[in-house]
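Now for our target.
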Amino acid sequence: MNLINKYNVAGPRYTSYPTVPYWNSIAPSQEEWKTAVKNSFNISNKEHGISLYIHLPFCESLCTYCGCNTRITVNHEVEQPYIKALIKEWQLYLRIFEAKPRIKEIHLGGGTPTFFSAKNLTQLIEGITQNADVCEDAEFSFEAHPNNTTSEHLKTLYSLGFKRLSLGIQDFDIRVQQIVNRIQSFEQVEQVVTEAKAIGYTSINFDLIYGLPLQTRESVQSTIAKVVLLRPDRIAFYSYAHVPWVKPGQRKFTEADLPADAEKRELYEIGKAQFSANGYVEIGMDHFALRSDSLYIASQTKKLHRNFMGYTHSYTRLMVGLGVSSISDTWQAFAQNVKKVEEYYSLLEKNELPIFKGHLLDEEDLIIRKHILQLMCSLETSWEKPEEQCAAVYDAIEKLSELTKDNLLELKPYHLKVKEFARPFIRNVCMCFDARLWRNLPQAQIFSSVV
């Protein structure tokens, strides 16, 4: 565990490169962003289709561990205006495409997507797909809260093409649930899972978090014992990111309530051992899947991909983010939408895309992005070809020396492989390649701890 203490520094999760704090200080103009989208669409639509991430920010209560962009309300009158705004934003993108899009992937994230009624979700999805073709192998998924996911939600979304759902569990221990304000019983979760499987959903994911306040070895063991009884197809076992300077709700508890460093990592290892004993295989970072799941198959065939939605077996060059705070990715550019609902509405009323910051990737960014993506997905990367090389790659090799001394890597000419037991340190390895981070080291903590 000495290595845990040594390498448990603050660092990015690398769902993108460059990471959001290191994007260009000047956002792409409306015209620059439209050009980037159009160029990417022309390639992506032909090759694979395009992906959509739709952010539905509303929640009826605040989960204090949460780092997402949310709006807390019990007023469901907010649903219709937001749905109409999402469709308006999509229509602005359709004008840019100038051709019928082929949709490969839709993911509804939040917030709480099941805050919205089944009727309003139908209006949203039909508003998106009526001017698009849906690929034969398309994958539609949504995040669900066990407490408000109804039979009508499950049946309606299935009829609209959704076959995958992700349930936010986090922990089954009542003391942990109370301190993070996320209370749902095992029986509620079991009911949703049983009904979803009966309807025909082909993949169910559970989100769990380790490192939450008041968690213990015994509570994590008990939670995972209950999880494996329900046999989800895949499991995301995330490290809790304590960033109270960003999310004030996390000030409900203090660092004294949190398992730290070696103790926190032990919780992960406990979970990993239980998952492995029950047929789950570790994928990338913090993910597990049954061998029958597409995520496992993608990892074995070197087709695993990672984006702002996390790990996926599906890749498209263009991912369009709709809704407040959503991030779009054209591969050569990023843009993020404004975070406040009122500002989002205001910009759309002016027929403006509601972006407020972004990044145009230069040649070095694109090279480093590929290396970090390969490391995060397959624990290895290589730079034999000239187009895979740049000064930053050779700077990274020097920075890897300490990790190499600790026997965490296999570093050969033009090739790097992270050893299997060193998987917990993958973010440390990626940080060595992060040229923008090294050129402007933060003066204050902006990331959570990597281990």
DSSP finds 16 helices and 19 strands in the chain. The chain has a mean pLDDT of 92.
